[in-house]
Amino acid sequence: MTEQHLLTGRAPAIAPADVRTVACIGAGVIGGGWAAHFLAAGYDVVAWDPAPDAERRLRDLVATAWPALEDLGLAERAAIDNLTVVATLAEAVSGADFVQESAPERLDTKVALLAEIAAAAPPGVVVASSTSGYSMTEMQTAAATPERLVVGHPFNPPYLAPLVEVVGGERTAGWATEWASAFYTEAGKTVITMDTELPGFIGNRIQEAAWREALHMVGAGEATVAQIDQAMTSGPGLRWAFFGPCLTFHLAGGEGGMAHMLDHFGPALKYPWTRLESPELTPELRDRMVEQTEEVAAGRSITRLIAQRDRRMIAVLNALAEVDRAEAAEAREQETP
Amino acid sequence: MTEQHLLTGRAPAIAPADVRTVACIGAGVIGGGWAAHFLAAGYDVVAWDPAPDAERRLRDLVATAWPALEDLGLAERAAIDNLTVVATLAEAVSGADFVQESAPERLDTKVALLAEIAAAAPPGVVVASSTSGYSMTEMQTAAATPERLVVGHPFNPPYLAPLVEVVGGERTAGWATEWASAFYTEAGKTVITMDTELPGFIGNRIQEAAWREALHMVGAGEATVAQIDQAMTSGPGLRWAFFGPCLTFHLAGGEGGMAHMLDHFGPALKYPWTRLESPELTPELRDRMVEQTEEVAAGRSITRLIAQRDRRMIAVLNALAEVDRAEAAEAREQETP
């Protein structure tokens, strides 16, 4: 411990399970969404945002999200009153056990703000940035204590989407990334801890590939926005709510799974089905896909996976149909007072 | 009518609403899935597949899918007994009001089979191919009556995923595409009728873009299958079950919607967030995206859309959590007999 401490900078100030107070720096759509999530998870939240009407917008956002969070289930001591909005950054972070930065997506802003937070936060307190694409290596350049700075990238809205991608920069200590991953898990998130500073992380890369293909189609007049959105929500999107692209294609291979799928449909990678150039399906990549997919399948047979897929797809379809019906009924009620 | 009839070949034999008997040619995963869907929608299904144990596998598939289809709600006269398996293609299509071809994905197979179906099906009966990527122009070359051949591309499993993409070939008559779209709608599917023979149609292009990016990441050792699948199901996939990529990004723009999103985050298109090259965000493309997204939003404010998104996301999360709990309880029951 002592040796690691000397090598990597400070150790964490507190255990992830003992965190009580979270500082949210920046309280727009993402920062406010984080505030709502941390409140629902039972933390005290201290927020700061330099925008003139930031407090009103933040409190509106949290109030609007609250019924949804109640439906999902609140933590024991969760309360909307555990939110404090303060006038300075220093005040926000001075008593925090963890800091979540969600400033506008400009590199110079992020660099300056993270340096300011690192100067004001108590020693050993981990600071995470919500950046959607900058690397921590780029952002931690001006900070006096870069070892405790990590990326903690959420998906919108942070109070509902479980995903957080955690990755450190070149000067981030291993303990800080580990601590952040453990803390987010404690706070109810689904955490992916990445070893590489991959531009856009993982979720955004997939999302961006789909988005660029959509823009290409609209630009070329091949499809409309309505057709693209409809295709997603009636097709691949329904499955991706519970099985990712790899497990989905594991099922497309029949009893042979991913191995059969790649061996049989591998040549389809050369089809002009998207503008995205296909990778070379080398034997190494083929084997890696098969092996890692089997890990995800974790012993479940294709038949079992199909049963699990169908059950979830029906649950999703029925749940969405129920919301549609409820909204239609509410609209009718409003028409006839 | 007479003139159109002369110009475009035969008129349809029957109105879409009057269809009683559907022929399924090819009864593997996709053809069998179609059979299950048509049975659940209340049709008589006559199936043919040359594989030796095709009938057993088909009846197994339908029997396995049936409880799921009951959960989703069966049509009035739906019955598993309305399935007949016959020994020849001619027998299958001779009494059909509509034919769905789901043969293996090989062009020569499709060309030959569609010619055979076109020769044997009653005049004016529309024939649809489940092809996941060939164009009807390529496939209809050997058919004597090409005007009634269309693509009707489903998503897997066809008995649960609502999407069907309909598009004709160069020699397909307008009435045939119209008829097929009307019939699929009648049969409970969500139909996208395309004007262009776009390779991969729409759903597969989006899916393929995500898939290729996933393969690239695994190939480069940047992410694992487990991380990619987890990122999808905890992040973008959850939203795509009900809001497509365009409406999702309409919300990312705050009150300014798609217009603000493109004007503000447009430069992000140049970021190396995926291997997919970005389209040029010309003023024309920008305006087209904004205009078409407003059409999809159909007058709903951003606030209203956010409320609708949150409600659906919670419904999906709760529905999936309930399935997880039910499966865990079942597993426990099986352990302690």
UniProtKB/TrEMBL annotation, chains A, B:
The keyword Cytoplasm applies. Residues 200-270 form the 3-hydroxyacyl-CoA dehydrogenase C-terminal domain. One of its GO terms (molecular function) is carnitine 3-dehydrogenase activity. It is an enzyme of class 1 (oxidoreductase). It comes from the Bacteria. Pathway: Lipid metabolism; butanoate metabolism; Amine and polyamine metabolism; carnitine metabolism. Homodimer. This is L-carnitine dehydrogenase. It comes from Murinocardiopsis flavida.
